[in-house]
Amino acid sequence: MNKITDTEDLFCSQWFQMPGWTYPQDLNQRTLDIARRRLREIAYHEAGHIAARAFTGLDYSHILWVSVIPDEDEGCGWGVLSRGYNAEWDFADSTPLGLGYQVLLRLLAGSVAGIRGTVDPEYREELQDDWNYWEWESDEEDFPRAEEISHMLARRHHPAHHIIRQAKQWTEEMLDRPDVWQCVKTLAGMLLREGTLSAREIYPAMDRVVGIHGLKGVDRRKWLRRFAQK
Ligand SMILES: [Zn+2]
């Protein structure tokens, strides 16, 4: 068995105790390989959420911690937000479409970053199929939440499935950007090294992406227009 890092060790000891774990609980080359690809996917997934938050210009001053170490209550891959923060979750029929897209891009960026960060070709294909065919496991939250939001944002000439299709396309486009992807890579690398990151460690990487409102470059207007829709 090749050398195991502290984060991998901690990850395995927690993950093997979780209800979803169906393999033997002892650490051998096979279980380590399974754990490694999942750990890597989670690190990129969480980093994707964070980078998207920075890029779309959503507030991030309330993020306290982000971790890839499974937790009994939080599951695999989680973040801790300060209490009382719910602005993004109070969706109503009057919620502007643009804000809806900002939140949808943040939600969907996790999956796309997880796919792009995965190196195991078979596993990557599996994840890619879930994304393409919009399928999810029962314990997954991002897709069902996006689905829910798309229905709340739906307009007469802009049905929910159009909104999802658009949000998926823009999520891919956002992660194609070198600045956003650099942020994902940096944060994923930090998460793989440290396991858990505090706000103080996360903010500098996010600040470099600056958020849409400080974004320079040719397509700034395009993104601002997308996020300004009524
Ligand atoms: Zn997620």
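^ zinc ion complex. The chain has a mean pLDDT of 88. The longest helix spans residues 29-56.
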